[in-house]
Amino acid sequence: MEAEAPPPPPPFNPAEQPGAVMPLGYFDPLGFCKVGDEQGFRQLRASELKHGRVAMMASIGAVGQHFFRFPGFEKAHGTFGAMLTGEGVLGFVVLFAASGVLELAWKDVKGREPGNFGDPFGVNMYNEEMRDKEISNGRMAMISVLGIFAAELATGKDAIEQLGF
To answer: What's the pTM?
Structure first.
């Protein structure tokens, strides 16, 4: 008798991946990730993680620049207002170059989850709970940075000045 072949594995389901957290669970209202499209999901997840990480840093910068200025950048005002000064343009060029270097350095490794660039500090915290937290915080930071930028464009005040300080 022939041995029965094992059943094929179930198709890739993006709803079962990290990031499907409460209260929304798996949220893809425009249907970008189809069941079975693992490569497409990996690309979108890697982009989401990179954008979330940048937004987390940008939110800290947008708030922190009110209190701390690097020497030579004292005249730069706000996030977008800084682009009206020579120092701000220089800072933008430096940040743009640093982002390009990081983009080239951080490559996804086949066989790892999207956005897993290893454990550079040896803290062994790259588990599912921390991945969910990173994705959630990145999503919140993207929304927060959009709000900070929109408020500054509307009023000309930086993130802290919006609060009346």
So the answer is: 0.81
